[in-house]
Amino acid sequence: MVNLTINDIPVQVEAGTTVLAAAESVNIKIPRLCYYEFPGMEKINRIASCRVCVVEIEGRRNLAPACATEVTEGMVVKTNSPRAIKARRTMVELLLSDHPQSCLNCEKNNQCDLQKLASDLHIHQIKYEGEKSRSGYDNSSFSLKRDMSKCIMCRRCEVTCNDVQTCNVLSGVGRGFGVVVSTAFHLPQAQTACTFCGQCVSVCPTGALTGVSYVDEVWSAINNPNKTVIVQTAPAVRVGISEEFGMPTGTPVTGKMVAGLKMLGFDKVFDTDFSADLTIWEEATELIERLQSGKNLPILTSCCPGWINFIEHNFPELLNIPSSCKSPQQMFGAVAKSYYARKIGVDPKDLIVVSVMPCLAKKYEAHRSEFIKDNVPDIDYVLTTRELASMFREAGVDLTHLSDAQYDDPLGESTGAAVIFGVTGGVLEAALRTAYEWVTKKELKDVVFKDVRGLEGIKEATVDLDGTKLNVAVASGLGNARKLLNKVKSGEANYHAIEIMACPGGCINGGGQPYKHGDTEALTKRMEGIYAEDANLPRRKSHENESIKKLYAEFLEKPGSHIAHELLHTHYFKK
Description:
Layout: E1 2-6, E2 9-13, H1 19-25, E3 36-37, E4 44-45, E5 54-57, E6 64-65, E7 76-78, H2 82-97, H3 113-120, E8 137-138, E9 144-147, H4 156-164, E10 171-173, E11 180-182, H5 199-203, E12 209-211, H6 215-222, E13 228-233, H7 254-264, E14 268-271, H8 272-293, E15 299-300, H9 305-314, H10 328-344, E16 351-357, H11 361-366, E17 372-373, E18 376-377, E19 381-384, H12 385-394, H13 416-419, H14 426-440, E20 458-465, E21 468-476, H15 478-490, E22 497-501, H16 520-536, H17 546-556, H18 562-568
Parallel strand pairs: 1-7, 13-14, 13-16, 15-22, 16-19, 21-22
Antiparallel strand pairs: 1-2, 3-4, 5-6, 5-7, 8-9, 9-12, 10-11, 17-18, 20-21
Helix pairs in contact: 8-10, 8-14
């Protein structure tokens, strides 16, 4: 242990602790900008590039960055000395001098770390006028866009992309005043190995990285009398959007959200959980078939488009093992524009399907060519949790004061198994609930598979299906996915099924969720909210969904049928 003094307060911490962490241990807040801790990981971005966290250390001539300076025995630290405060203000003033003065129409307005820091430090004017760096604007993708004139070189996105997600798309390019975080050779983002997971957007402290918005297009569709506009909502949205309205983190607001969507003018409000249950019918069937044949194992879940993009770019030799099932979003769109459109007598071209997702990669997924038939896409527009919250505020809809409403039929019924798709391990657990009963012909009384739950990056378990041993694994975060896939590729792994989600923690931590990235406590609360929804539902197994049974009886025939494969399954491409 090391003893030191911070602002005249005695502090004792372990050797190797930074001054920043030591100060936080006694509730002393030191402003910071580039410093970042990644939830559930040892990885920390503490390159000390912004110099906002500088402190004065007795006996040292220069101020020290608290995020990158380790404590020493007897150290005396002042975090609030006039010299430290003045230097801190100067650092932020210099950053602002090279920053566009467009806060009012910036997408990160009121959610910008730089803006908040300037306010906290009482900076209300640009002290240093001068040349501004001119960097490119990239809106080449359907998911995210980059405005590098707003980049402050904190390198959070670079560390996220390279060290956490291991996509290696972003890096510092150039020298001196012209340096910027960009792609190799400044290629458009859409021409790189970017998976569009959106984790870089989540960690960006300014508006340099943001999502592509389709809010205006959705408003136009809702107000078009010639279109029937329906909406589906993903499981993680219901425990994320509540935070945008001041409710405790992780509060499930399913009924209030449905009521709000109806107030916005959607013709019908449906649930992605319906098609998540449908996914399990198809995926559990596929799992059982592969177990019986012993071929193409381990089966990999295919619900996450960011992860699918990752394997297409990085492991094309393994493209035979992901499940061929479309994601719940795309299954919903396919069913809506066939089965449901016929039911209500609407031409699929006049049926607009809107998705509300916690994810930016879903925007990319909706534009994949294999999901567009005769110029009619399965999904027309994808909104994030943040975008839906902005639509509610624009329309004066406050979720806190709404009474609960119910999803519409027939694409609104779901089970608890579908809800848990929103957390890491949930898709695998849902599949196991159904696979157990279909394989054993016995009732599964305890539906909770604890070994695949939790926010750990990699989880492994052996599941006993009444004598049939299944080795399973769960990975969240693409860096962890790479570790598992390398084991599969080398033959070291002996798994039968693997669930992979691109975002650490799963969809509750998606790139379109409210900006609380890095807050492990917030992720835990969202996870608890998802599991509470599951526990409170009368049916908790996907194969108990009566509307899915009716869908097969009236239209799809049976899981794995020809028409089911035509509508609900897909294939993948080497990139």
